[in-house]
């Protein structure tokens, strides 16, 4: 009992209204007799120890599932005394699509390291609290928010507590109700809330908010707001291509600018991307150009990727294969885990010769499962 920790995962209720935030709660209790130092990180970061999957999430085998990318993130530890509880909540609307009425299934896990407070946390051997649960909830178009209204969340933007203000901004940006368009558009002019403006404008998805995204992209310093470029690319409106191309030309070594331009431009992006394939920058510019071909939705990109699939450079071949799969939603059948990309070239070349003129080519935002090459 010296270091026993228990936990539970729960929702406050099982029915929510449309435009109502859905929070998932993680509660941990120190059931032992000694204070424990418990791991703490941003709950929305990959190193938080939380894993959440909702039935509307993309499947791992979807063409739109992102490749996993790690990185560094800040973490610390906090003391939890015997008999005390700590509760953290995560806004599900932020990273998951739950805006439509209907029934949802949720799988949540928590993996939380901890160690005795008598020891130096980052050097101590850790124990782990592992909790898993399956929950169901419903978004009902006839239900009314039971606790806090949208207007109350707006009021919390003016709270004296900065953490409360940030949570309110994240919540309103994630929900982005059309009735609060004026409030959300003001996020761009308020330094404290500006980081939430791209998400809010994207989810509003009005002519005004898309123009707001473009203005954010024009005004923001490089690398400070790559979300606006991504969301404009995802909008599917080719009128943003000139603006996105301008950013891609300035930052050809940054996929956050190049990929949205490729997605928006389609065939028109190829004259920009093809010369980049000859870049002497083999660390960033050239690999990004190879990957960007798979974002274009262009039939003309297929022969280029087929040629790149034969490259002796494994990274180039892997990126070419990724692009071919994204554009065609096809894959070599059977277990390909031990096949290097170059060895798959004959199957792809034969399929393209046989079916290329009639095969459907997919845009980046057209998600689907992969079918075997025939």
**What class, by secondary structure content?**
alpha+beta
Tell me the major beta sheet.
Answer: 6 strands, mixed
Uncertain segments: none
The rounded Rg comes to 24 Å
Overall morphology:
globular
**Annotation field: number of helices:** 14
Please state the average pLDDT score: 91
Fraction in helix: 25-40%
Put the structure in a nutshell:
It is built from 14 helices and eleven strands. It has 374 residues and is of the alpha+beta class. Strand 10, helix 14 (345-355) and strand 11 (371-372) form a beta-alpha-beta unit.
Task: Draw up the topology in text.
Layout: E1 5-11, E2 15-17, E3 23-30, E4 36-41, E5 50-54, E6 75-80, E7 85-91, H1 92-95, E8 102-116, E9 127-140, H2 150-156, H3 162-175, H4 181-185, H5 197-204, H6 207-219, H7 226-234, H8 241-250, H9 255-265, H10 270-276, H11 285-293, H12 301-309, H13 314-328, E10 330-331, H14 345-355, E11 371-372
Parallel strand pairs: 2-9, 10-11
Antiparallel strand pairs: 1-3, 3-7, 4-6, 4-8, 5-8, 8-9
